[in-house]
Design goal:
By secondary structure, this protein is an alpha+beta fold. Helices cover about 35% and strands about 15% of the residues. It is built from 5 helices and 10 strands. The strands form 3 sheets. It has a 4-stranded antiparallel β-sheet, covered by helices on one side. A 4-stranded mixed β-sheet has the order 5-7-8-6, with helices on one face. A hairpin with a 2-residue loop joins strand 2 and strand 3. The longest helix is centred in the N-terminal third of the chain and has 25 residues. The relative contact order is 0.08. The N terminus is likely disordered.
């Protein structure tokens, strides 16, 4: 059942469900019983009065019960807030819980899969006089929560998990709309920056710098350079000798043609005659 033991958590969050695991008033049950026996002995007045024995028993019972209360409050206490579920010494964030399984059907012959899952806390299983509640963890796996009033904890936990999922899926200040991930936003921003460059490259008919040209065998395309216009040549002027592609020098434009060997020999004969 619900207990008003901790009203708020250290983070000042309201407590939705709480079970302390042990109450300090139980420590007084043993000493009170010993006190009643002592009063009866004094009233009756027959025989010896066991002052030492009753005092020793009262202290022994109080110490033994106090140890149980300390262990119970540490290992079997339950506390549910809007952001976390504490089971003993283990705390689970509600954001990590994907689903709360329904209660097991007592008329079914088969056990549910979550009934063999690990119980939350330091104990090896569900504590005595507690009932397990199946939980599905995000990323895979199942665990068992537990409580005396398991139906109340199940109802409060289901509502809290649904509210945590709604807060996680909504943007701050815009409830009901899914939040855009940081990675998607960065990719969208990068695409918008590259779009003007691609449009400019398509208009010029040339691939962007650093891109590949499919007509060039996949090699990196380089921007074409404009040819330098040729300088006009004045008539009668000798053009400079420019090397040809095969390494031989090209003749000048106004150079005289060389006569053949036969013509030189004929002229020499005529002069001798």
């Amino acid at each position: 059942m619900n207990d008003a033991h901790p009203v708020v958590t250290p983070a000042q969050e309201p407590v939705l469900f709480s079970e302390p695991g042990g109450r300090w008033r139980t420590v007084t049950y043993g000493p009170l019983l010993c006190l009643i026996v002592l009063i009866l002995e004094l009233v009756i007045g027959r025989g010896a009065i066991h002052w030492f024995g009753l005092t020793f028993c009262a202290a022994l019972l109080a110490g033994f019960v106090a140890l149980q209360v300390v262990a119970g409050r540490r290992h079997v206490s339950v506390e549910l807030t809007e952001s976390s579920l504490r089971q003993g010494t283990e705390t689970v964030a509600l954001d990590s819980i994907a689903r709360v399984f329904p209660e097991h059907d007592d008329e079914s012959w088969d056990d549910d899969s979550w009934q063999s899952a690990r119980a939350l806390g330091e104990l090896t299983g569900v504590p005595r006089r507690r009932t397990g509640i199946g939980l599905k963890i995000r990323g895979g796996g199942m665990v068992q929560a537990w409580a005396r009033d398991h139906r109340e904890l199940r109802a409060q936990l289901t509502t809290a998990v649904e509210q945590a999922a709604e807060k996680r899926a909504a943007k701050p200040g815009e409830p009901g709309k899914p939040a855009e991930s940081t990675k998607a936003a960065a990719s969208k921003k990068s695409t918008s920056k590259q779009a003007p460059k691609a449009a400019k490259s398509q208009q010029s008919g040339q691939p962007r710098d650093g891109g590949t040209d499919p007509d060039n065998g996949g090699h990196t395309a380089r921007p074409a350079t404009s040819a330098k216009p040729a300088e006009p040549v004045s008539p009668g002027a000798d053009t400079a000798v420019s090397p040809r592609a095969d390494g031989a020098a090209a003749p000048r434009a106004n150079a005289p043609a060389v006569s053949s060997t036969s013509e030189v020999r004929t002229e020499s004969e005529e002069e001798a005659g």
